[in-house]
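Course assignment 3, question 2. Fill in each field.
Student: A.L.
Task: Predict the tertiary structure for the chain below.
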Amino acid sequence: MFSTVAAWRFRRLFPKWLETENGLFLELGCGTGWLCALAWEMGWQAVGLDINLLVKLGTYQSSALTVYRCPSSQTLFHLVLFHLVVLRHVLEHLPSPRQALSEVYRVLKDDGWVALEVPNAGSLGRWVYGPLWDSWDLPRHLHHFTPATLRRLMEQVGFRKVKISSACFKPRVLTAKWFPSKNLLTRFARLLLELPSWLLLPFLVANQQGEILRAWGLKEG
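Answer field:
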């Protein structure tokens, strides 16, 4: 059961068209290394980098899985080239997203892919809450992206065949705005409204207004 759930979770970020047999996988900002471990389980040769000293290096021990601590300003690799580089909720924290993506572009093999995940500043939640939107998250988030600005940045760095989608709809984004009280009556009203609000999901996906943006870009050979 857990294997099936893990495979489904992996496929949301990395569709089958990204796959390369025995491909080299790099995650920047890998945290505890769980995604690297999942990539390894899916057949990738996985490497993780993180600046955090609290990275749990022993959590996922394997001869095929390596996690490094690396300062954010350090050049990544000189000789190793990767088939897939992942930045999951990392780009918005970096002082220079353009410089970071340029370095990612450099360490990718020809016909390699980058996969990104960032908060969506063009989301329904941002529209509803405005300056109170939780994903502004200042001062930790230094940059914010809409589908258009993220696409433009990736294309300016050199990526081609850029694909962008949105995900993660939170019904409470709508209900908590107008029913903030926590008494029993308002909780019941929020529950009643949250159920039909899921009908908005196809519209939000089609219009790239989910809370999260996922993007992929190709380094053409």
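Instructor remarks: The longest helix spans residues 184-197. The chain has eight helices and seven strands.
Grade: pending
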